[in-house]
Amino acid sequence: MKKRLVTFAFFVIAIFVVTAQEVKFEEIDLDNGLHVILHQDNSAPIVTVGFMVDVGGKDAGGDNNPERTGFAHFFEHLLASGGTKNIQKGEWYKLRASRGGQGNANTSLDRTYYYQSFPSNNLEFALWMDSERLLHPIIDKESVDTQNEIVKEEKRSSYDNRPYGQFLFVLGENLFKVHPYRFKNIGEMEHLDAASLEEFQAYFNKYYVPENMVAVVAGDIDIAETKKLVQKYYSEIPSGKKAIRNFPKEIPITESKRVKAYDANIQIPGIMAAYRTPGFKSREAYILNMVSAYLSDGKTSKLYKKIVDDKKMAIQAGALNINQKDYSIYAIFGLPSGDTTLDDLLIEIDEEITKMQNELISENDYQKLQNKFENRFVNSNASIEGIANSLVKYYLLYDDINLINNEINIYRSITREEIQDAVKKYLNPNQRVVLDYLPKTKEN
């Protein structure tokens, strides 16, 4: 009885916290087509400004050109650190730090996001900096050559020379045959080297227009004053056209495919079973997020506990749902220990999947999942930077900005039966690519 009361109390507290943290926001549209989201929180003297652009690694060369990959990631670097008409090359980080600011940028296959945080008395300065890189970026031969070298070094350190660094790239190339998700997000270096200056400039002019992005200002602000500042600094950005895409559709996978890849940076082989699943706006994507958490979120999760802790067959095992707009990737992986073979691991993985297909997960495990997603939801809105990111993400990618407050209701509504049905529908052996990721030797 005491345990039930504690569980009930925790549930009530969790609901109270989620409700109490409702994120309020205002939206405005500038005449040039830029949509701006404002969120006021005066609890700390911090402000985050940022913008998300509807361009990512799938937009190779602007026209699905397989010989021009990596452009979106290239511009992440150029606009995050390159010079502008009024900020000298190499001075961006120094200038920001001089005002107590920090920031970053990141690129996925679907979008590019830039953000900066400052003490709130530097709001106008932050908006000026962002307007500078959108209005007056320096895209000349020197800038292109400099950023190309930076990207090459990142590729060497983060992918080429990092153990298991090509894992996901190989999966993408095998799961997607016609859709540009088959491209590496960081791109091929020879593609960037071969591109002309005019191609880089055309890419910026096509995608970095107000109609193709959304801006956010969040934190210790006055809404009325911030609207004036947004108008002052962002209204001069030239308008353009919303990017229109018509990517080819993939044919469903109906037969299992097994491939091999070799990595000179590893000594322990790995295996990964990957499935092409629906895009992140679908209900199924949310359900598969729960499947992933059930299988491998923490050392008490089913897959980890069974294969790593109990049977000692692997040094690592897990599952992840790589959410993307058009198609997602659901992947289950393992690194064997001792005399365990990759086939042994695959059998154990399949047994756990088959069990989920044949039996409902327990009510206790289901409640644990609900609690995990309640906590994740609260934590995602626990900082100004997190709120800013969520606001632009839900607006630009999900077409529903109110998900910042309502997304948890989707998880709350998912049933055990839906979890079982999703596993039955999407995680079958004939719907996957199995990758043997092996140490590279002189023999291979």
UniProtKB/TrEMBL annotation:
Record key words, sorted: Hydrolase, Metalloprotease, Protease, Zinc
Record-annotated membrane-spanning stretches: none
UniProt signal peptide: none
Pfam families per record: Peptidase_M16, Peptidase_M16_C
Stretches assigned to the Peptidase M16 N-terminal domain: 36-155
Gene3D superfamilies, sorted: Metalloenzyme, LuxS/M16 peptidase-like
Peptidase M16 C-terminal domain: residues covered: 196-372
Membership in a protein family: Belongs to the peptidase M16 family.
Protein name: Pitrilysin family protein
Provenance organism: Hyunsoonleella aestuarii
